[in-house]
Write a structure and sequence with these properties.
The chain is mostly beta strands and about 130 residues long. About 15% of the residues lie in helices and about 55% in strands. The chain contains 1 helix and 9 strands. The strands form 2 sheets. Strands 3, 4, 5, 6, 7, 8 and 9 form a 7-stranded mixed beta sheet that branches. The chain has a two-stranded antiparallel sheet with strand order 1-2. The N and C termini lie far apart (about 75 Å).
Length: about 130
């Protein structure tokens, strides 16, 4: 009987811990032309380079329609091509005609309305700012 009580208590702790893990932390991204489900995770630090000019991109509005806008272009320091960033980097103020190297972190944040987790980039440090 004592073992059953301990097993019940342990099960309660395990299940209560799982109840906070109900976030939908996956999103669909296009990788090499194919849609792939990826998990959004926290990344404490990674380096990116911001291009001196913005790119034309399409961003979703609150109603879900796509509108043309200007987006930052980034690449990781070892990559050759830039990718448009559909969003901002919190704490970073962009000035045109400067090439930046930034140390940023990614945090998984849940949108309370849609219950979907999305990655948010936050500035850790501006490593360099070079006029072009």
């Amino acid at each position: 009987m004592k073992k059953l009580a301990i097993a019940t208590l342990m099960t309660t702790f395990v299940l209560s811990g799982c109840s906070t893990m109900g976030m939908n932390d996956e999103r669909t991204m296009v990788v090499e032309g194919e849609p792939v489900n990826v998990k959004v995770v926290n990344i404490p630090s990674f380096k990116i380079e911001i291009a001196p000019l913005k790119a034309v991109c399409e961003l979703p509005t609150a109603s879900g329609t796509m509108v043309e806008s200007e987006c930052l272009q980034y690449r990781q320091t070892y990559q050759k091509n830039y990718t448009p960033l559909n969003g901002d980097i919190q704490g970073f103020t962009y000035e045109p005609n400067y090439r930046y190297v930034l140390d940023v972190r990614q945090e998984a944040v849940m949108n309370e309305a849609t219950k979907v987790v999305k990655p948010v980039w936050i500035l850790n440090e501006v490593i360099s700012k070079t006029a072009e």
